[in-house]
Amino acid sequence: MHRVPAPEQAGGGDAPGHSVFLSYSRADRKAGLAVVRILEAAGYRVWWDGLLEGGERFSRTTEMALEQARAVVVLWSRTSTDSHWVHDEATRGRETGRLVPLSLDGSLPPLGFGQFQAIDVSHALGKPDSEPMRALVRAVAALHDGPPPAPAAARSPTSGADPARRRLLVAAGVGVVAVAAGAGLWRWRAGDQGTPRPGAGNGRRIGVLPFANLSGDPQQQYFSDGLTSEIRTRLSRNTLLQIAGQTSSNKAGQEHDDVRSTARALGVDFLLGGNVQKAVERVKVAAELTDGATGMSRWADSWERPLADIFAVQSEIGAAVSGALSAVIQGPGADGAVPAGGTADVAAFDAYLHGRALYEAGIDEDSDRRALAYFEQAIALDARYAGAHAARARALVVIGNLYAGHAERLRAYDVAVDAARTATTLAPDFAEGHSALGFALASGQLDMRGAREPFDRSWELAPGDADILARYATFRSNLGDHERASEVIQRAVALDPLNARTFRSQGDIRHNAGDHAGAISAYAKAIELNPTLAGVHASMGFAQLMAGADADARASFTRERSAVRRLPGLAILAQRAGDRAAAEAALAELVAEYGDKSHYQYAQIHAQWGDTDQALQSLRAAWELRDGGIMLMYADPLLAPLRDTAGYLELAKAVGFI
C-alpha cells in the first residue's frame, strides 16, 4: 500500500511495548496476513507493510517502526530471499538480537542467516493451534521478556437480534458520517450539469485513503479513521475539487498495492494518504499528496501539535492540498472555520469518534448502547454539536428497532426525532441532520408524509454525497416514485463505483419498479464486490422469484445467512411448488425465532400464498407494533396482491403514502 513518511514517536506515549515488525515480500501478502492474525490474537501489536516498487516505500516509516519493534518477524520464501528490502530488515533484526525467522515454503534463509533456525510454517498457516504457530508466539514472547499479553476477549452478543437485520437497517440510511455533510465520490459546482466522468483529466479528483494508525495501540484506530473522514469533509468544502467516496477509497486502498493502480481504480488524479500517532495530549500527523499518473509526490508534510490543535491540522492539510493543486483549481481552500454540524471542542470530537467507531462496528446491543452513550457524552461537552445530535438520532432508531420492547421502542423513536430536529435547528445547512430526521420519521415513527421534507432538503444540500443520494433514492422508491429514485441512484452508483451497498440499493429500487431483470443485474454486481453483504442473497432471491426463476431463487435463499430474510423466500417457494408442509414449516420456524418482531415478513408470505385476510391482519399488526418494515409496504412487489384492498389502502393512507 501507499505509505507516507511517519512523524517521530509522539512523546509521552502510554502504549505498552508489545510490538512486532513483520518483514515479507508483497508476493507473500496472504501468508503475511495469516501471521499478523496469529500475533494479534496473542495480544501483540504488529506493524506490517507490503513490499512496494522502488521509490514507493518511504524509509522513515519503515525505519521508525523497525527501531521501535521488540521483535522482527521475517517471512523467508523463494521470493523474499531475493528481496533486498526484506534482507535489509532481517539484517537489522539480526544485529540487534530481535530476529524471529519463519519459512513459508521450506526455503532456506539466504547467506548470512543460516545460523538462525527458521520456524517452518509451510503447513501451519491459518492454524493457530499448530505447533509451529505456538513456537512463533513463544519466540516473540521471549523477546518481550515474558508471556504474551492476554488478548482481548471476544465479544459475545448480548441480544438475540439478527446481525443482518441491523446491517440492513443501517444500510437503509442509518450510517454515521464524520461531523459534516460528508463527501460523495465526486464533488462538483452547483451549476455543473450531469455526472463528472472519471478520467476526464481536469486534475481535480482526489482520493483520500485511510490514514494509518501508528500509535502502536489498535484501540486508537477510531481516531485515525475519524481524522481521515474529517479531512475528506474539509476538502469537499472546496467546490472545485472532486473527492472520492469513503467506501470506494477504503476498498481501493486495501486491494491495490501501488499508487497508480489505486488511482485508476478510483478514477482520480491524486491520492492523499497519511498516518497518525496519538499519545495522551499530543498528536502527530503526516500526510502526502501523490500524483496518480506518475506515482511522484506532489506535496508532503508532518505536524506535531497538542491534541487541542487537531482541528487546525485538519484545516492546514486541506489548505496545503488546495495550494499544491493551485495550477488546476481556482477555488477557495478549506479554511479554519468549523464545518456545518461540527465542533471546536476536542473532547466532544473524541467522544463522537468513539461512538462512531462502535456504531459502525455494529457488534451487538451493548456496542450500540455504548455508542449512544458516547454521542450523549459529546453533546454534554458541546450542546451545539449538531453532528453528535444526528448520530444520537440514528443510534436511537437502531436500538428502538432491534432491541427494545414496544413501549421503549416508541419512546426511543420520539427522542430520535427530537435529536434530529435539534441537529437541523443548530445547523440548518447540515445535510446529514436532515437525512437523520427523515430516517427517524420514516423508519422510526413510520411517518412517511412527514419524512418527505427533510429527505428532500438533504438532497438539495448534498447532491454530490453518495450516501445522501442512496438514502434519498431509497426513500423515493419506497414512496413509489420510481423514475426519480432510478435517476438518483444511478448518480450514486457513478459516485461510488466500488460500494456494494450502493448496487444493492440500486437492485432494491429496480425490484420495486418491477424491473426484476435489472434488479438481478445490480444484485450480481453487489455480490461480486462483497459476497458477504448483509441480505443481498435474499434480495437476489426475491428478484429471481418475481422473475419466475424459482430454481435460481432457491439457490440464492440457501446462500442467505439471515433467517428473517431467508425463511420468507423459502416459504413462498415451497407453497408455489405445491409443498404446503414445507411452506408451513418455514413459516413456523420464522415465527418461533422472531415472534412479534417480524409481522411484516408474515404479511409478505401470506400475500404470496394468496391468503389476503391473514396478510392484512399481519400488516396491521406490524403497523400497531411500529415494525420498521412498514416503510417498505407501498412499493414492495410481494404485497402486490393486496394493493386494491380497502384494508391496504386505509393503512397506506395512515402511514402517509397517500
Written account of the structure:
Strands 6, 7, 8, 9, 10 and 11 form a 6-stranded mixed β-sheet that branches. The protein is α/β, with parallel strands linked by helices and 658 residues long. It has helices at 29-41, 59-68, 84-95, 131-143, 163-171, 221-236, 246-255, 259-266, 310-324, 346-361, 365-381, 386-402, 406-426, 431-444, 448-461, 466-478, 482-495, 500-512, 516-529, 536-546, 550-559, 563-576, 580-594, 599-609, 612-624, 646-655, and strands spanning 19-23, 45-48, 71-76, 99-103, 119-120, 205-208, 212-213, 242-243, 270-279, 282-291, 297-306. The protein is globular, with a radius of gyration of 26 Å. Among the domains are: 19-143, Toll/interleukin-1 receptor homology (TIR) domain (Rossmann fold); 163-171 and 182-339, TolB, N-terminal domain (Rossmann fold), CATH 3.40.50. Strand 3, helix 3 (84-95) and strand 4 (99-103) form a beta-alpha-beta unit. Helices cover 52% and strands 9% of the residues.
Main attributes?
5-stranded parallel beta sheet; alpha/beta; single chain; Rossmann fold; 658 residues; 6-stranded mixed beta sheet; 52% helix
The chain-level structural class is: alpha/beta
Question: Which percent range describes the beta-strand content?
Answer: 5-15%
Given the C-alpha coordinates, what overall shape results? Answer: globular
Q: Can you count the beta strands? A: 11
- Main sheet: strands, sense, barrel: 6 strands, mixed
User: What is the end-to-end distance?
Assistant: 52 Å
- Tell me the radius of gyration: 26 Å
